[in-house]
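Hello,

I think I submitted the magnesium ion job twice by accident. Can you confirm which output corresponds to this input? Input:
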Amino acid sequence: MDENEARIREDRKALRQLLSQSESARSELLSKTSSLESKTHRIESFKKEALEILQDLKNQRQQLESAYGKLTELENMKDEFISITTHELKTPLTPIKLQTQMWLSGLYGPLDERQQKSMKIMLRNTERLLHLIDDLMTLAKLNAHKLKFEFQDLDINQLITDVVTDMKEQAEEKNIYLKYEVSEKPLLIHADPQRIMQVIVDLTNNAIKFTDEGGVTIKAKQQRGYVIISVQDTGIGLPQNDLDNIFKRFYQSDHGITRTRGGSGLGLAIVKSILTRHGSRIWVESKKGRGTTFYFSFPKIHGG
Ligand SMILES: Nc1ncnc2c1ncn2[C@@H]1O[C@H](COP(=O)(O)OP(=O)(O)O)[C@@H](O)[C@H]1O
Ligand SMILES: [Mg+2]
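Support: Only one job matched these inputs. Its output is below.
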């Protein structure tokens, strides 16, 4: 074998090696391309799925929006219904009350004892109905944000003093005390005086209603930057499991003596709603047989 032949062999060998390398590179490229293709395919199918989910979400949102619209419409209809029916109910009740009062005053001639008793029952129940209708009206207006609030800086101490003066007789009739504990200096909060008066009157009414011994104390005190107002009684108290429920509409604890003290169960719902509109919080502490205290708080106004 001459030198040339040997070189040609070497070259052939190198060429074969090169060919086999390029073959394996090609097959590697092919496999990579196919894996890339399958990945692209998967991405495409993910994309399709994502688009479907997005469309689904859009549909659901549309459904929710339309349901919300219907709910708002129903809510408005309900408020309107309450507003119309309460008005229609109140219209005939007002002359019934007036006529009963006229009979009782002796305007239509003297009444014997039985007739007087009967008229008094009529008057009491008419007043209860009127009260319930007023409460329903107030609550519907509060829900619909149709009750106007007139905020101003007011002296809560003066307001409490006025409530106690106005309601003292009511407590005396039950042989219990009604007193206040407030500082002589004015204590200012930013609120609607009429509505806050209503809150304190409602809480005091309850306190008197559910207290047979001892009495009721209304307090206002400063605590850090807040004014805490409390209505405390030494009455029948509430079982622990009622404390979360008493602010709900129509809820009345049966106190083991099912509903003998009258009322509609709307008072505290109104109180809570009024205070919520003020940004104020109400809470209650009570022990069965030991008495109840309702608290609500307001930020203190400087200078007060
Ligand atoms: N001071 C209180 N002591 C004991 N129970 C109370 C007191 N205040 C409220 N409650 C309970 O909470 C319920 C709801 O009160 P409220 O909404 O004012 O309704 P109402 O006075 O018309 O019954 C009452 O029926 C009563 O069971
Ligand atoms: Mg009440």
